[in-house]
Amino acid sequence: MIEELKTFVAxxxxxxxxxxxxxxxxxxxxxxxxxxSLERMYDTVLIQRSxxxxxxxxxxxxxxxxxxxxxxxxxxxxxxxEMEGYKKEFQGIIRIGASYTIGEFFIPKFLGEFTKAxxxxxxxxxxxxTRTICKKVSDMILDIGLVEGYFNCDEFIYDAFKEDILKLAxxxxxxxxxxxxxxxxxxxxxxxxxxxxxGTRQELETFFREEGIVPKKIMVFGSNYSIKEAVKxxxxxxxxxxxxxxxxxxxxxxxxxxxxxxxxxxxHYILPKGKIHSRLSILLVKMLKELNVx
Length: 294
Fold this sequence. Notes:
By secondary structure, this protein is α/β, with parallel strands linked by helices. The chain contains eleven helices and eleven strands. Strands 3, 4, 5, 6, 9, 10 and 11 form a seven-stranded mixed beta sheet that branches. A two-stranded antiparallel ribbon has the order 1-2. The chain has a two-stranded parallel ribbon with strand order 7-8.
């Protein structure tokens, strides 16, 4: 039963029988047979196959089974750890997802401290935008997410663990240093932004609304480093995390424009609601609350 469920999960996540078979080292006929076995067991169609279009569609019943199968597999993995003596000492792998600012500027230092306390714990780190991390936590592809953007509070157990300050940055000499932000000075500016689904993009859009800005042009970059470099080289203006800008500020490569109010946001950890959380996830949350990582 458990092997059939693992096979079914692989087919859903790869959305392809052949790719799933390769990933779990089985033949495609064997994969198909295990899926059919599950369909007979539950007397329903889990996956609709279109041979002409060479694609599969997960039925509503299949989506229910996928969700529960992930929970069962996660629980069995946790039982295995405990039965092998993991109660005596924390060991194993924790799958962490982090949005870009957290992944680039917070995670390395935090995990350095964490590893000192728990040297036998290993990490599988995924760095992506907030929307993607939330989806992977909800689907139990990740054990825990650390995000900077907005998310659906009803789907997760969550709490804030750090405050982040956002700064308005421009190319060196773009306007007089120390000048307070005035909308008229930026009415024709190009705004440098992250992609849709990014927490930093959400904060920039909040800034636009609160300051009454209708941007004429937005230039999108997929990383914090490229945003900082774009501003440094005069491609436009941005609002981003102070952590992204600190090095450029120290090297006197960009200017910071004072705003009428301080723009802040919270970093949150998220755990899937209604699911079984691993002991390692709970331990990580405990450390997040205890460590004072600047």
